[in-house]
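anyone else get weird line breaks when pasting these?? whatever heres mine. first is seq + tokens for prot A
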Amino acid sequence: MSERTGIVTLLGNPVTLGGDALSVGAAAPDAEVVNGELSPVSILDLPGKVNVILSVPSLDTPVCDTETRRFNQEAAGLGEDVSIAVVSMDLPFAQGRWCGAAGVDQVTPLSDHLSAAFGEAYGVLIKEVRLLARAVFVVDAEGIVRYAETVGEVADEPDYNAVLEAVKKCL
């Protein structure tokens, strides 16, 4: 696995990302993650024609909470041709409990805790703490990456407007 530095900080401290950066226009890589029923699923088998994939360190942290709730609200205006998933290293049980308590029902939680395959394939695995960096990917109906943002400081939120614009361009 390749490693990259100088891309992301965690609370101001530089970290190492495992995996290669995704390029806009490239085919989205596949990776196996685990759903809430502990079943393996492909990150590319999400329902919908345009997939928004959120990568977060842990749903049970303030910024991840805010981001996931925001995309849950935005989902209503995006229509049925868009699916949104949030991937973290959280256990599926914790993800389900958090989503239930937060009222998140439009974003599918997926866990990368078993193998970190998503983190490596999408270039967002933080080596030092084995968590995922904050990132957002928009993949069109043909499986092509149309937007990729790796947030420079894990404690910062993504550019919501840019993500939503990219989604609209794919519809």
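and prot B, same format (seq, then tokens)
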Amino acid sequence: MKLIVGLGNPGIEYEKTRHNAGFLLIDRLCEKIGLKLDKSKCKALYGIYRHNGEKIIIAKPQTYMNLSGQAVVSLMHFYDIDVNDLIVVHDDLDLPVGKLRLRAQGSSGGQKGMGNIIDLLGTSKIDRMRIGISNDKKIDTKDYVLSSFSKEEFKILDEVFEKGADALIYAFDHDYDLVMSKYNG
């Protein structure tokens, strides 16, 4: 069993914001595989996709970003999922818009949701997919991550979300090292 989690903030007012890049990629993944996130438990909205006899849980925490770990850990405990079977998708200020970076471990890089997950799980050895949202140093970080993408940025992100969804589908059957070697770049 695997757990794929996209990070973001719940609510219509945050729907198209930079901080919700993880949610947006999960939405694309669900479109591609025909899955509805129709279950609500463990502070998350999620669905269960069956692939070659294996359950793959795809989720969007319904806590605010900085408490994402509560939903992730709850789902992991409820479904008895090992940290090695977890992939977290989140935004990254240090990457330009249009850049997708896959990593098998590392610090949170200042991303509060990822930091909360690392703290609650007690490990930074977590597979993750980071989506570049750029950074405007002239705007307070909190305001910037809660701002919307421009139309031009959404055009770029469309390709990123497609590539990211394909990488996650590839991860259904492959070790994350193989996923990283195929989709990083």
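btw re prot B: The first strand starts at residue 2 and ends at 6. Helices lie at 21-33, 68-79, 112-121, 141-145, 151-171, 176-183.
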